[in-house]
Design goal:
Elements: H1 3-19, H2 21-27, H3 29-57, E1 63-67, H4 80-83, H5 90-99, E2 103-113, E3 118-121, E4 124-127, E5 130-134, H6 137-143, E6 146-149, H7 154-158, E7 163-166, H8 168-175, E8 184-187, E9 190-198, E10 212-216, H9 217-223, E11 230-236, H10 241-255, E12 267-270, H11 271-314, H12 316-324, H13 329-365, H14 375-392, H15 394-401, H16 405-410
Parallel strand pairs: 5-10, 7-9
Antiparallel strand pairs: 1-11, 1-12, 2-5, 2-11, 3-4, 3-8, 6-9, 7-10, 8-9
Helix pairs in contact: 1-13, 3-11, 3-13, 3-14, 5-10, 11-13, 11-14, 11-15, 13-14, 13-15
Length: 412
């Protein structure tokens, strides 16, 4: 077999498809849907992964979040032991600050949120806010990017001052074009003076609003004495993350009187570990979507095989003529295999366009979701669709090649 025979067979396959456009379209519809769905969902998951990973990584490569159970995405529910763990205490944070040599900064953090949490200024309300209680060290840990005004000082924190720093979307909702610095707002029944505003984080989840209100830790403890779920944000010294985690673990085990035979009754979470946990979840979702989308490819492949068998029957006399003038079995096999491959490859190309449209629509709905169709995904989609045609075209091509030329010439 030479290249001329290959190109002639390919040209014949294209001519046959052009002669039966509607039949070809209906045949490869499953291929189009399967390939398009895989590429579209892949683009969305890639964008979602990039968005969430950027958010989790924004905690910083040297940061550790200490909580009573692991923070971040989970592949399973909390265990009974995790639900019954004692909350961390402010004293735990004080001891870490005093005893952890590898820790650069230590800040307790109390987060209060819920549908009933609101902020109000002169009749303007915003609900569903996140109220953070932290210490002044929180700003030095790189978690705050100031826009106007200032962050509260250590003296204001120790003095339980009623001051607050607002997130970007809260500032926009409550004050519009007015300068909020120096104004007083009501947050779920408590008055705070606004001393600064923050820029929206560069890395944020798609569709999310910056509804943070940050106040001194002891102030929020005074206003919400019943809240117990404390987290501790630790920033390790540069290059000493592993050492800091070991020291934090030892100090907390001693503080919480954990027997040496028992596992930790608290969790240390890092950005790298949270990203890894999240990618385990997205990989499972991607696997499920690929399996479901493969049903479309299977249906499309069966359709291709069926239509190729019909084509063999319709063109029996043509096959007999070709064999009578010297065509070999390999030439007949090549002709029908190429027809199946070209058919499904065209369906794969249409599926790529369909997947790109899914990604484009997703970007319109969620402007902050960085969806894109990577080149490798488009190439893989085209390869899979062509491979589907090759696999499901083997039997019809073999059947055509086995036809007896005398019987084929008699066929009407």
């Amino acid at each position: 077999m030479n290249w001329l025979a290959f190109f002639n067979a390919a040209a014949l396959a294209v001519q046959t498809i052009q002669a039966h456009k509607m039949r070809a379209l209906l045949t490869v519809l499953g291929i189009v849907m399967g390939t398009g769905t895989i590429i579209g969902v892949g683009a969305i998951l890639t964008g979602f992964d990039a968005s969430i990973s950027a958010v989790l990584s924004s905690f910083g490569p040297e940061s550790i979040i200490v909580f009573k159970f692991p923070v971040g995405p989970r592949t399973s529910d909390l265990t009974g032991e995790e639900r019954t763990r004692k909350d961390l205490t402010y004293e735990n944070a004080v001891h870490l600050r005093a005893k952890c040599d590898a820790c650069e900064q230590v800040s307790p953090m109390l987060i209060i949120n819920g549908v009933n949490m609101y902020a109000r200024y002169k009749g303007n309300d915003i609900y569903g806010i996140n109220l953070f209680g932290v210490e002044e060290a929180y700003e030095r840990e790189g978690q705050v990017d100031m826009h106007e005004g200032r962050f509260f000082t250590d003296e204001e924190g120790r003095g339980r001052a009623a001051v607050a720093v607002l997130g970007a979307d809260i500032t926009k909702s409550l004050f519009a074009n007015e300068n909020p610095v120096g104004k007083r707002i009501n947050v779920a029944g408590h008055e705070y003076e606004v001393i600064g505003t923050m820029n929206k984080p560069a890395a944020s989840m798609f569709g999310s609003d910056d509804v943070r209100i940050v106040v001194p830790y002891l102030t929020i403890r005074k206003n919400y004495p019943a809240e117990k779920e404390l987290a501790i944000v630790v920033m390790a010294r540069k290059g000493q993350l592993a050492k800091a985690m070991d020291q934090v673990r030892v100090i907390l085990r001693i503080d919480r009187r954990v027997p040496y035979t028992k596992p930790d009754n608290f969790a240390l979470s890092t950005a790298e570990q949270m990203v890894s946990d999240f990618r385990q979840i997205t990989s499972m979702v991607a696997l499920v979507m690929v399996v479901l989308s493969s049903v479309g490819l299977l249906v499309g492949g069966i359709g291709v095989m069926n239509i190729m068998l019909v084509s063999v029957t319709e063109r029996t006399k043509e096959i007999g003529v070709r064999k009578a003038i010297g065509a070999k079995r390999s030439d007949i096999i090549l002709q029908f295999l190429l027809e199946a491959v070209v058919l499904t490859a065209l369906g794969g190309f249409a599926g790529i366009v369909f997947g790109w449209l899914i990604a484009a629509v997703s970007r319109l709905i969620f402007p902050t979701l960085p969806t894109s169709v990577p080149l490798w995904a488009a190439a893989l989609g085209l390869l899979i669709s062509a491979g589907t045609g090759l696999f499901f075209g083997i039997w019809p091509a073999s059947k055509a090649a086995k036809l007896d030329p005398v019987e084929a010439l008699r066929y009407e």
